[in-house]
Design brief:
By secondary structure, the protein is an all-alpha fold. Helix content is about 85%, strand content about 0%. Helix 2 packs antiparallel against helix 3 and helix 5 packs antiparallel against helix 6. The chain starts with a helix and ends in an 8-residue tail after the last helix.
Length: about 220
């Protein structure tokens, strides 16, 4: 019985890795689409969001099967409960990447800024997502805590990007105001992705230690 349970837990890990990879790919594609002004690439991000949504349903089904059909011990319960929380944040990451894609589709390629800082934000946020899932699979407490710490850097980049774009609006006397506002929204979506990755890392910490910062579970 335990062998079957362990095999299903292994399947859960594989599916979480795949969902995390889809989220990371969506973030990278959305950023590439922004930098290249590629409508086609942006549409691919939106299509990928549907696959991420389906992955959430599949993993949720597997978690419920593990809870109902097996006899998980406390450590297993924490692992399964954390997975259920993690997929909610990963699904929202897919939504944020799709929101960025929608902005790209509705607007032309930016001329306001060279987008280097947004590119850096995207790389940092994507790494946070990848590392948070890796820390879950490997039960790596140190790595999940590094993800939480990395969120501060993403927040700082967001504030710097927002200031640069507001300054650009002022310098151009509002001529490119709507475009700059759209880019502020893109940066905000990336900042939220960092927040979701942090949430994932916090649930990883719970799955390992039994302690969650916002609860007494």
């Amino acid at each position: 019985m335990r062998n079957k349970f362990d095999m299903q837990l292994g399947m859960l890990n594989e599916q979480l890795i795949h969902m995390g990879e889809l989220c990371e790919l969506a973030i990278n594609r959305a950023t590439k689409a922004l930098q290249n002004g590629s409508i086609e690439e942006a549409k691919n991000v939106i299509d990928a969001d549907q696959e991420i949504d389906q992955m959430e349903k599949d993993i949720e089904r597997l978690c419920l099967k593990l809870l109902l059909q097996q006899q998980p011990v406390a450590r297993d319960l924490r692992q399964i409960s954390a997975a259920l929380k993690m997929i909610t944040d990963m699904e929202r990451i897919g939504d944020q990447a799709s929101d960025i894609a929608e902005i790209i589709i509705s607007e032309k390629k930016s001329q306001v800024t060279d987008l280097k800082k947004i590119g850096s934000m995207s790389e940092a946020a994507a790494k946070m997502v990848r590392d948070s899932v890796t820390s879950y699979v490997n039960k790596d407490l140190e790595l999940c805590r590094r993800v939480m710490e990395a969120d501060d850097a993403v927040d700082i980049m967001f504030e710097e990007t927002k200031k640069e774009l507001i300054d650009a609006i002022a310098d151009n006397k509002g001529d490119q105001g709507k475009e700059a506002i759209d880019l502020i929204m893109v940066a905000k979506y990336l900042e939220r992705i960092g927040d979701h990755a942090t949430n994932i890392a916090e649930w990883v910490e719970f799955s390992i230690t039994g302690i969650h910062k916002d609860s007494q579970i």
